[in-house]
Design goal:
heterodimer, A: mainly alpha, Sodium/glucose cotransporter, two-stranded antiparallel ribbon, 25 helices, B: mainly alpha, two-stranded antiparallel sheet, 3 helices, 2 strands, elongated
Chain lengths: ~625, ~90
């Protein structure tokens, strides 16, 4: 792509052609299926052809320029950066797991829908335009420039890696599960297939390659997410707009729940297992929303996407587009949950076990659905049926009676979601190591060639470690993903926001803020999760008995303080970080005039950035 | 390029901060306040949905999206008004 200008001005045509080509490809596979090509072959064609396209984009986007490698040359239009952020953001958990969580939790699961969208408001108004004006390569770059040196930069790198690493491992596990299920290869092999898919997208072209593959991946994932539920809605309600039509489905669910004796209603907010109003459920609902939103606004792989737009103005516009593209999936997820629940209550529960629908039998074989006739009456009762959250989206094509090609499409969508998020996270980690640690702290005299080689070696290194962890401990650490939000929120949100919005924030205050916020939240997570009984004993003796208690989760005795589940650990760390930064700022020497000039210069869109001390990097 | 004087920058920042607080207040209402009333809102129906459920599943999300496009336009207008937009 030597004629980059032409490429940018032709984006609409290129991606339009790409979308049309993909649609034609799906139709072709549908025809092949009808003439008797086996499912296994269709699955292979789907996954390898999409992987091939991503690899092609990755290879033609290779670059030998630093600004292309780190920030895609700052030429990504707001609209396309929005799409790229959408697929960067939506992971395997959003694509496959979210609808299942909503199926299981009903109203209370909507905390995820709210939490993973509303955070973009904070990104737009508090951070993105100013980080774009600052205009360097990474989030720790900002901490280094604003708080005078490598120590705050290093603290930022630690928080970034802690939050992002587990997250990227989870994506690789997701790739492994999807690939092994649809290709029939072993999980360990599938992990390394996925690893190859991730590296080929990001290694040669860095941010530039990741950006243009993420746009391509967004298009596939959103098509794959919408088609099954649109067709299911048309079949069940006669109208192909699931987002509008599941209102009446919710009504039917409530009626069926009353008939079947289900006391915890799907649409009822803040209720316990008995269906009674629960103060604790409400508190955890709002705490989770808060942590997910603030976490969204702190995750470096998202923030760094706004370094790539041509201007501050485009950065703001781009956050709006990002949220729009994310919204398309998230406001559809509750419809998936509702249609699946209706199917289960209507056509599965209360049926004779020997004549259950085909999809139930198919997913029971792979262990995602369990049926246990506890009272041996041959009829399936509510309590005798369990379904794994992952099965909701995966089984919808079969519930709707669609051909196998649609199931293959869903697998390709899930793969796109997992790969795109993995790419973004991997790049965030490797860039922090190559730019912040290697170039800024170890060898500031390194030339471009050396920096790019280091960046790629580190990228491969981090990817291999992540794949090794994914392959060896696999699914047992998936619950850690939710922690990433709390960790990033507690460690990064306050210093970033205060650095821009509160001029008197001092270097020492910011460092203490990061340390205190991160330690409290990370400590709370580890202590409650793995040393629950000790936690309860300690805090009950300090705060009086009843302050802490134990809940059974993930096969462990997990503690909580004041009834706050540990997934919302940032509820303690974020306010603590703000408080520490404010208080310490009052007692330490005010930022220099130079530093205040620097803050003034990033607050205003026009003009140069006046870095305090130290030369600017290119 | 026209320079941004300190006075102009200060006035611009005041207008920008005001917009930020307005957005933050709307965000707080759409994220938290509305949903406090979810149990009672559920007795109202809107296009077939219980309203409390609808607000968490769609209503607040639509508010967020619209808010952000409005914010981008509004902030652009402030940039131009104080003559600090990028050249």
């Amino acid at each position: 792509m030597s004629t980059k200008g032409d490429f940018i001005s032709n984006l609409g045509k290129i991606y339009g052609f790409y979308t049309g080509g993909f649609a034609a490809f799906v139709v072709l596979l549908a025809v092949l299926e009808q003439v008797g090509v086996p499912n296994r072959v269709i699955g292979y064609l789907f996954l390898f052809l999409t992987l091939g396209v991503y690899a092609f984009i990755g290879v033609i986007s290779r670059t030998a320029q630093l600004s292309e490698y780190y920030v895609a040359g700052r030429r990504v239009p707001a609209f396309y950066n929005g799409m790229a952020t959408g697929s960067d953001w939506m992971s395997a958990a959003s694509f496959i797991g979210m609808a299942g969580t909503l199926y299981l939790l009903g109203y209370d699961g909507l905390a995820f829908v709210l939490g993973w969208t509303g955070g973009y408001v904070l990104v737009a108004i508090l951070l993105a335009p100013y980080l774009r004006k600052f205009g360097q390569y990474t989030v720790p770059d900002f901490l280094g420039a604003r708080y005078g040196g490598n120590f705050p930069r290093f603290l930022g790198v630690i928080v970034l890696i802690t939050a992002s690493f587990v997250y990227v491992v989870a994506q690789i596990v997701g790739v492994g599960i999807i690939a092994s299920r649809f290709l029939g290869i072993s999980f360990e092999v599938a992990v390394f297939v996925g690893l190859a898919g991730i590296l080929v997208c990001s290694m040669l072209g860095g941010m530039r390659a990741v950006t243009w593959t993420q746009v391509a991946q967004y298009i596939i994932l959103i098509i794959a997410y919408l088609i099954p539920v649109v067709l299911l809605s048309a079949k069940v309600t006669g109208v192909p707009i699931p987002q509008l039509m599941y209102g009446e489905v919710l009504d039917k669910i409530t009626t069926l729940e009353n008939q079947l004796g289900v006391v915890k209603h799907h649409v009822a907010p803040f209720v316990d297992a008995k269906g009674a109003y629960s103060w604790n459920a409400a508190i955890n609902y709002f705490a989770l929303i808060f942590c997910l939103m603030v976490g969204t606004a702190s995750l470096p792989h998202i923030l760094m996407r706004y370094f790539t737009t041509p201007s501050v103005r485009d950065a703001r516009q781009s956050v709006a587009w990002s949220l729009f593209f994310i919204f398309l999936l998230y406001f559809t997820a509750p419809a998936y949950a509702a249609f699946a629940k209706l199917e289960v209550y209507q056509n599965v529960i209360g049926q004779s076990i020997s004549s259950l629908p085909g999809w139930v039998q198919a997913w029971a074989q792979v262990g995602l659905v369990t049926i246990k006739d506890a009272n041996t009456d041959g009829i399936l009762q509510v309590a005798e049926f369990t379904i794994d959250p992952d099965a909701i989206v995966l089984a919808t094509p079969e519930i709707a009676g669609l051909p196998y090609v649609i199931a293959g499409l869903v697998a390709a969508g899930g793969l796109a979601a997992a790969l795109s998020t993995a790419d973004g996270l991997l790049l965030a980690i490797a860039n922090a190591l190559s730019h912040d640690v290697y170039y800024r702290m170890i060898d500031p005299k390194a030339d471009t060639r050396r920096r790019l080689i280091t960046a790629r070696v580190l990228l491969i290194g981090v990817a291999l470690v992540a794949a090794w962890v994914a392959g060896s401990i696999g699914g047992s650490i998936l619950f850690l993903v939710a922690w990433a939000f709390s960790i990033a929120a507690a460690g990064l949100f306050a210093p970033l926001v205060m650095g821009i919005w509160y001029k008197k924030t001092t270097d020492a205050a910011a460092c203490w803020g990061i340390i205190v916020g991160f330690t409290i939240t990370f400590g709370y997570l580890i202590w409650t999760e793995f040393y629950g009984p000790g936690f309860v004993e300690f805090w009950n003796s300090v705060l009086g008995s009843g302050a802490a208690d134990i809940v059974k989760a993930r096969g462990r005795d997990v503690a909580r303080l004041w009834g706050i589940n540990n997934i919302s650990g940032a509820i303690f760390g974020v306010p603590a970080a703000f408080l520490v930064i404010y208080v310490v700022s009052q007692f330490t020497r005010q930022p220099s005039q130079e530093m205040q000039d620097f803050i003034d210069s990033i607050r205003v869109p026009r003009g140069d950035v006046r870095l305090a001390g130290g030369p600017a990097t290119e | 390029m026209r320079d941004v004087t300190p006075e102009k920058a200060k006035a611009y920042w005041r207008a920008t901060s005001r917009l930020m607080w307005v957005m933050l207040a709307m965000w707080f209402v759409a994220s938290f306040v509305i949903h406090l009333f979810a149990p009672s809102l559920n007795s109202i129906r809107i296009i077939g949905f219980p309203l409390g459920f609808y607000m968490a599943a769609q209503g607040s999300l639509i508010i967020f999206v619209v808010m952000l496009f409005w914010f981008a336009r509004r902030q652009n207008r402030i940039d131009e008004e104080y003559d600090v937009a990028e050249d």
